[in-house]
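Researcher: Excuse me, tokens okay?
***
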Amino acid sequence: MSCNDQVMIRFDHVTKSYRLYSNDRDRLIDIFRGEKHSKAKKVNAVSDLSFTIRRGEAIAFLGHNGAGKSTTLKMVTGVAQPSSGTVDVNGRVCALLELTAGFNRNLTGRENIHLRGQAVGMSPEEIAELEPKVVKFADLGSYIDQPVRTYSSGMKARLGFAFAVNSDPEILVVDEALSVGDKRFRKKCLRRIRHIMEDENVTVLFVTHASATAQEFCTRGIVLEHGRLRYDGPLDDAIRIYEKSLDED
């Protein structure tokens, strides 16, 4: 099997369901009396979704708000698990989505770099090599050795972004709405994302509502609609289908 034939992500008939409750009483009934007596409304955020993504592909996920894009990416990153079906992910995932999640507020920024490195399975040697890169990129000055509880939300986002993009990802998940820090730092972030995307060995999942942005980065498009796969194929066709759906609303 050649490098570009390697399957990095596979969704096999994946459904992700959530329960919606009209009040706390119904929620308690569900907890204590079980699903048989549940009054919750079951909603599928994703329904019977199947696709395969290979190493080096750059794929745009297109769809309205509520189409299932965020739920799909949460299952790629391991934040959410499918209710049925299987999700296989092979490779280190760099998710530029919820950058400030997962920090220990009582540890310093530098200590959180080590904590995150351990969490993603890095060796002590890899973490030691990564640390100065993250510190330099985040550009937090003396705050890097202060507890994260003293950071502003923007400072935490900078640290999270710096860790993510310097950790040699094999799978890069990018939300185009990502906005980190001031204008100068945002430009720095965009340059780094572009650099990673140019690496043909990195698989890119790009969530966007902008067709021009998708065409700049991606060659394949997946269109989701009401949690279901509407189209998977060449990007130009995906964009036409997505934009047509906008006119149908």
